[in-house]
TrEMBL record:
GST N-terminal domain span: 1-79
Pfam families, alphabetized: GST_C, GST_N_2
SUPFAM superfamilies: GST C-terminal domain-like, Thioredoxin-like
Coiled-coil segments on the chain, per record: none
The protein, known as: Glutathione S-transferase family protein
Amino acid sequence: MKIYWIRAQAPRRVLALVKHLGIDADCIEVDLRAGGLKTPAYLALNPNGKAPTMVDGDVTLWESSAIMAYLCVKTGSDMWPAQRPAEQIEILRWLSWSDTHWSRAVGPFYFEHVIKPAFHLGEMDRSEMTAMLPELERLAGVLDSHLERRDFIACDRLTIADFQLASMACEWRRAEMPFADYPHVARWLDRLMEIPGWADPWPLRTTAEPALANA
Ligand SMILES: N[C@@H](CCC(=O)N[C@@H](CS)C(=O)NCC(=O)O)C(=O)O
């Protein structure tokens, strides 16, 4: 199995799961700044030109939530409960909420504070964060109420929904996300950090694939 990744939030979800479940995968870091996601070889795997992408035998898959579900089915992990439709629906609700609302709201904070410096994309621009703050606070309120009597997003245990929602939010302290005012969100994020694969998802061993690394 091969996982193509860059050091950013969507690959983070998948790499954390790979570590957490002890999956033996070749993790191939793609050189974003050299245009590695836009080479014909990479676009043939993922026409979106984004990471992550997974290749497992005949199966090529993109979208981190789909890859996470695939990895759980393959390993029999109940972080995606393949045999329990009611639980799948509960998880799916939060995956949709994350992709439609939550990611949009935390995105500017994560981009300005984490991605821009990591990939040398220029100076911080606070305007999008300022504009998004009221929406982020509104959504943090929804999540905070949900987590008031829960340790996890769905099914009373760790699922792929936790990794989905936390992949940008986990940077909340350095990214100025206002979660100090939402104690159940902060508690949930801090407890996730006790999971070794989540706290440090980045592969120790990475394989270079020159055909994909250069534009
Ligand atoms: N919804 C996709 C998001 C994929 C995505 O946007 N990946 C970003 C990193 S988080 C990327 O590859 N960015 C590089 C680019 O846009 O050039 C998923 O969950 O896999």
